[in-house]
């Protein structure tokens, strides 16, 4: 391609699309690592029978690790080249995955899972990178494109993990991820450009500045709590699904639990559309609709404890609601302070994944005590919290 061709608008659009697809792939492959363990809980219980009551800690600490990684690593995207940060985290995550695949005890697996969660924040370098590359008029669509990759990674991770575990055992799941990350690293080296740092703050001040962003931007506080509550609802379902399917009347293994990820991929398909809608109409209306959808999904779940068809319908509604709200929330926060997108994203995503960890933890506590109905009621409760937070500020916070 000639230089003049490269400078045409059509060529620039193609180049941007190519970079967004690569960033979407990076986000999806990276974030998948924190969800591989969810359809494997029954496998962990069988491998470590003396620690069976603690298997729920694996997804919970993975998500807590992700929140910690967001706090400690993601802000560095404003200070350093995001491409270099992504490559360094891939190296560290490969080490953690090897440890998980060879874990002799559940305790070692939990430690490895914590490290995997911390280092999987590669995905949160990709999303602000997309916002940086795209013009303001296309920012919602660009974020939605990369988020669709991230969401597919979240959902299809369960499918891939379930299939691999069914035929090769759960340890092979983590080994396969190492191979995928090494291939991705080679593509990143060849195709991904360097990013431009937007801050010269030292690390300590970079972290402290996030508190100032929280104090300064009420919309950031609102979006963070709403997002956390929505992701708690999402996580409570997915962290318990494998246990529901393993028991009566289903008696299904990890492959079946993983295949629900394909159903949930419908939500990922809504991400770019949600981004476009946010660009045109503003995000608040779509967030309201999304909260209603999540509440409806848990009503469907409550009525579907013995119905695969009902669970499938509920999964589609849940994932569309959660992912549409996520895109709309991120579209809002990236416009607040362009020179601090990584830090704004960090504040939001730390809250988001703390919400996910809370959801997984509540699921682990509610499931043995109250069963599937208790899990469904808790899911509605998280949706109600999101609605209260979102609507109480509707008159004073503009999208």
UniProtKB/TrEMBL annotation:
Highest taxon, organism lineage: Bacteria
Database matches in InterPro entries: MFS, MFS_dom, MFS_trans_sf
Domain Major facilitator superfamily (MFS) profile: start-end pairs: 16-398
Keywords of this entry: Membrane, Transmembrane, Transmembrane helix
Gene3D superfamilies reported for this sequence: MFS general substrate transporter like domains
Entry annotated with the keyword Transmembrane helix: yes
GO MF entries: transmembrane transporter activity
Record-annotated membrane-spanning stretches: 18-36, 56-77, 84-103, 109-130, 142-161, 167-189, 228-250, 256-273, 285-302, 308-325, 346-366, 372-391
SUPFAM superfamilies in alphabetical order: MFS general substrate transporter
PANTHER family, A to Z: MAJOR FACILITATOR SUPERFAMILY (MFS) PROFILE DOMAIN-CONTAINING PROTEIN (PTHR42910:SF1), TRANSPORTER SCO4007-RELATED (PTHR42910)
Protein name: MFS transporter
């Amino acid at each position: 391609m000639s230089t003049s061709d490269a400078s045409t608008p059509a060529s620039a659009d193609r180049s941007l699309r190519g970079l967004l697809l690569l960033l979407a792939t990076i986000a999806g492959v990276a974030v998948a690592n924190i969800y591989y363990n969810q359809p494997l809980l029954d496998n962990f219980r069988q491998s470590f029978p003396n620690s069976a009551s603690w298997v729920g800690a694996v997804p919970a600490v993975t998500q807590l690790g992700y929140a910690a990684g967001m706090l400690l690593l993601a802000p560095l995207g404003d200070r350093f080249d995001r491409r270099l940060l992504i490559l360094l985290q891939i190296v560290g995550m490969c080490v953690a995955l090897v440890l998980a695949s060879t874990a002799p005890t559940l305790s070692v697996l939990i430690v490895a899972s914590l490290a995997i969660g911390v280092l999987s924040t590669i995905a949160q370098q990709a999303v602000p990178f997309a916002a940086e590359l795209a013009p303001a008029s296309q920012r919602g669509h660009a974020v939605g494109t990369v988020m669709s990759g991230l969401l597919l990674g979240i959902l299809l991770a369960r499918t891939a993990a379930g299939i691999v575990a069914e035929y090769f055992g759960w340890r092979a799941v983590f080994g396969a991820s190492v191979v995928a990350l090494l291939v991705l690293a080679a593509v990143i080296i060849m195709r991904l450009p360097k990013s431009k740092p937007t801050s010269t703050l030292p690390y300590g001040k970079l972290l402290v500045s996030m508190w100032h962003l929280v104090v300064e931007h009420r919309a950031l506080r609102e979006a963070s709590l709403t997002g956390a509550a929505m992701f708690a609802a999402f996580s409570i379902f997915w962290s318990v699904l494998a246990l529901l399917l393993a028991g009566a009347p289903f008696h299904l293994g990890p492959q079946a639990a993983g295949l629900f990820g394909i159903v949930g991929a419908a939500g990922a398909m809504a991400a770019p559309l949600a981004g476009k809608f946010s660009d045109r109409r503003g995000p608040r209306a779509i967030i309201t609709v999304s909260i209603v959808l999540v509440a409806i999904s848990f009503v469907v779940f409550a009525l579907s404890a013995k119905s695969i068809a009902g669970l499938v319908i509920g999964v589609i509604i849940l994932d569309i609601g959660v992912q549409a709200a996520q895109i709309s929330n991120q579209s809002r926060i990236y416009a607040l302070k362009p020179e601090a997108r990584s830090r704004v994203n960090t504040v939001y995503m730390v809250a988001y994944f703390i919400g996910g960890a809370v959801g997984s933890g509540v699921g682990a506590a509610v499931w043995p005590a109250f069963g599937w109905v208790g899990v469904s009621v808790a899911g509605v409760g998280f949706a109600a919290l999101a609605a209260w937070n979102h609507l109480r500020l509707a008159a004073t916070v503009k999208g």
